[in-house]
Amino acid sequence: GNLMTTRLIRIVKGFFLSLILLALIGGASIAGLMLWGVTIDLGFLKSGVERSAESVLERQVSIGGPVTLEFSTWPALDIQGLEIGNDGSGSTPLFLSAGRARVQLGIFPLLKGTIEIAELIVEDIVLNLEQNENGAANWEFGSGTVEPDHRAPQPDTQSDSDGKTPFLSFNGIHKLSLNNITLNYRDAALGKTFEFRLDQMQGKAPAGKPVEINFLGLVQDYSYDLSFSGDSLEHLRNVAERAWSYSLKGEVVGKQVAVSGDLVGQGGDPQANLSFAVDDIDVGLILDHLGLVEGLEASTGSMEFKLALKGASMNEIVQQSSLSF
Fold it and tell me: Where does residue 304 rank: exposed (0-12), middle (13-18), buried (19+ CB within 10 A)?
């Protein structure tokens, strides 16, 4: 009896020692991968991701390029050749075309329930936004014509309306880089189409520190080269309780501009308040070129403007915003 008991104890000890040894080896292997960095090809997951995205968005989704994961303490996901189809009423076949998107997150902040982005790179993007005569927008998903794939995992519909603290919170971004971005906006109620081109944007918004962004490009055919600075992201999240202040400086169409203002969120849609001064600007020519006003002859010597922007669409912004000088 004692011999059998001794053997059983040895077997149990050996079993648990083996488990501990395997756990140590596995942990050491994962730690080594995280420290040295290993790139993993995730191409085998593309079809599943496409089906899941189509189920959620109810739009055609395809990933034509490679998908890789750089495994480390700050893992990076790199996706190339992403396309999202437009809804049935769109004037173009694609809602979004993305050449490349790369995001790098911190694992240890994520374990604490915080999303901290070390690097976000987006390149070669074309985004087509549209609103019809009734104000329905093509960026409101879930009303498309694509039948969802019921084999794909269904999204969790539970909301945070119960007042509980969200499981994850966004803490900041250390490096933001956007290159060759084109935004097309069509408002059927106005009968106008606008093109915004962002050639380059570099910025950062670390936790507890101001948002800083430098960007240059074109609005219609008008060039801009601007620097933006705003309060921290924490203040922006609480805009309903406290105004979020910002400033914008730089050059637009060869003219120096300086804008200051704040974003307030009390009572309905957020409202952006701006004050700025302009020198020797042909206002009529600009409004005519944007397609908002035709035949207006107006120019400025040196004037200060105050603008309050409010509305959920370009048509509402035109109707609800106010300008004083």
Answer: exposed
Predicted confidence at residue 152, as pLDDT, reads 43
By 3-state DSSP, what share of the chain in percent is helix, strand and coil, each rounded to 5? Answer: 25, 45, 35
CB environment 165-189: b (16+ within 10 A), e (fewer): eeeeeebbbbebebbbbbbbbbbbb
Contact 250, 224 (CB under 8 A): yes
Read off the pTM: 0.66
Ordered alpha helix ranges (H), the chain:
2-36, 46-57, 107-111, 233-237, 283-290, 314-320
Q: Give the CA dihedral 307, 311, 313, 318, nearest 10 degrees.
A: -40
C-alpha to C-alpha distances, 224 to 64, 65, 255, 288, nearest whole angstrom:
33, 32, 9, 18
Q: Give tens-digit pLDDT for 229-245.
A: 999 988 888 877 888 89
249-308 residue pLDDT tens: 998 877 788 888 888 876 666 778 878 776 666 655 666 655 555 555 555 556 677 777
Q: Is the pLDDT of residue 11 over 80?
A: no
42 vs 238: CA distance, rounded Å: 38
What b/e string do you get for 127-154 counting C-beta neighbours within 10 Å, with b at 16 or more? Answer: bbbbbeeeeeebeeeeebeeebeeebee
Residues 120, 175 contacting (CB under 8 angstroms): yes
186-224 residue pLDDT tens: 888 888 888 899 999 999 999 889 999 999 999 878 899
Instruction: Return the closest-CA partner of residue 144 out of 93, 195, 193.
Output: 93
DSSP 8-state assignment for residue 44: G
